[in-house]
Design brief:
Order of helices and strands: HEHEEEHEEHHHEHEHEEEH
Strand content: 5-15%
Number of strands: 11
Structural class: alpha/beta
Radius of gyration: 25 Å
Largest sheet: 7 strands, mixed
Shape: globular
Distance between the termini: 67 Å
Strand order of the largest sheet: 5-2-1-6-7-11-10
C-alpha cells in the first residue's frame, strides 16, 4: 500500500544520494591526485626553486644581513624552495663594523661567513646549476661590490667574479628571472648589454640617497638606469631582471623590507607565468 510506495520512493532517493556521494568522492580524489602530481596540496602554491647568492656576512664587507633576511622571508612566504650559495674564496678585506675601519691582519672566507646567514646550509657558488632553479636572487651589501665584483674599488672599470658572470649569463640565456637588491644591480649592468636597472635615485636629495653616483656608473657600463623610490622596483621585461634600491636609500628598515617584498612577489609571479 502507501507504506510500500513510500519505502520504494525512500530507497530510490537514498540510491540517488549514494550515487552523488560516490561521484563527489571520485571528483575529490581526482583533484587531490592532480594537485599532488604537481607538488601541491590544497591552498599551497607550486614550489618554486630559487637560488640566493650571498657575498659574506655584514653590510661593509659582505651581504647586507637585513636585505638577505628580507629576501628569505618573502621567498618563504611564497612557498619557494630556497638554496643558498657563495663563492669559496677569501673576501676582499674585513671591516670592523663598530668603527667602519679595516681590521688589520684579519682574513675571512666568503663562503664561511655567508654560512652564518644560511645557518650552515650553503653550497659553493661553482656548484650552482642553472637547470636546477627557476630564478636567482642577489641581495646587496658591499660584498657584492668587493667580493662578487671589484666595483667598490674600480667603479665602472670593475671586474666580476667568473662564477657570478657565468650564472647571470646562463639565467639570461634560459630566460629565467633574476632579482638584484641595493648595489648588486651593478653585476647585471656589467654582464648584460642594455639591461634596465634601478639603484634608486640619481641625486642625493639631502643625503637620502648617499650612493646616488652609482646611477651614472651603471650607465657608463652600458645599462639604462631608472629612478625608483625605496619601496618600488624596476623590471626589465626583455631580460627578466628585477631590481629594487633597498639600502641605497637611507630609509627605515620596514621600507627596505617592503621594497624587497615587491621584488620577490613579482619574481615569483614571473616564474609562474613563464
Amino acid at each position: 500500500g502507501d507504506w510500500g510506495k513510500r519505502f520504494r520512493l525512500d530507497l530510490s532517493f537514498n540510491s540517488i544520494i549514494l550515487r552523488m556521494n560516490i561521484l563527489r568522492g571520485i571528483n575529490i580524489l581526482f583533484r587531490y591526485n592532480l594537485l599532488h602530481s604537481r607538488g601541491l596540496s590544497s591552498g599551497v602554491e607550486l614550489s618554486n626553486r630559487v637560488a640566493v647568492v650571498l657575498s659574506g656576512c655584514g653590510v661593509y664587507d659582505g651581504s647586507e644581513i637585513h636585505e638577505a633576511s628580507a629576501c628569505l622571508v618573502h621567498l618563504s612566504r611564497h612557498g619557494a624552495e630556497v638554496s643558498m650559495f657563495a663563492p669559496d674564496k677569501t673576501q676582499y678585506h674585513v671591516i670592523n663594523h663598530c668603527t667602519g675601519n679595516p681590521a688589520e691582519g684579519e682574513s675571512r672566507n666568503v663562503l664561511v661567513e655567508s654560512a652564518r646567514i644560511a645557518r650552515g646550509n650553503i653550497t659553493s657558488l661553482h656548484e650552482l646549476k642553472t637547470s636546477s632553479f627557476d630564478a636567482v636572487v642577489f641581495p646587496g651589501g658591499f660584498g657584492a661590490a668587493k667580493n662578487l665584483s671589484s666595483f667598490a674599488i674600480d667603479g665602472d672599470g670593475m671586474t666580476i667574479d667568473k662564477e657570478v658572470e657565468r650564472i647571470i649569463r646562463e639565467f639570461r640565456e634560459a630566460n629565467k628571472p633574476m632579482g638584484f637588491c641595493c648595489i648588486s644591480p651593478v653585476l647585471a649592468a656589467k654582464v648584460l648589454s642594455d639591461v634596465e636597472v634601478t639603484v634608486g635615485m640619481d641625486t642625493e636629495n639631502d643625503e637620502r640617497w648617499p650612493y646616488a653616483g652609482t646611477a651614472a656608473a651603471v650607465q657608463s657600463m652600458g645599462a639604462k638606469h631608472f629612478n625608483r623610490d625605496v619601496s618600488e622596483i624596476h623590471v626589465d621585461i626583455v631580460q627578466n631582471v628585477l631590481t629594487t634600491p633597498a639600502y641605497m636609500c637611507n630609509a627605515p628598515i620596514h621600507q627596505i623590507f617592503d621594497g624587497i617584498g615587491n621584488m620577490i612577489s613579482t619574481l615569483v609571479n614571473m616564474i609562474q607565468h613563464k
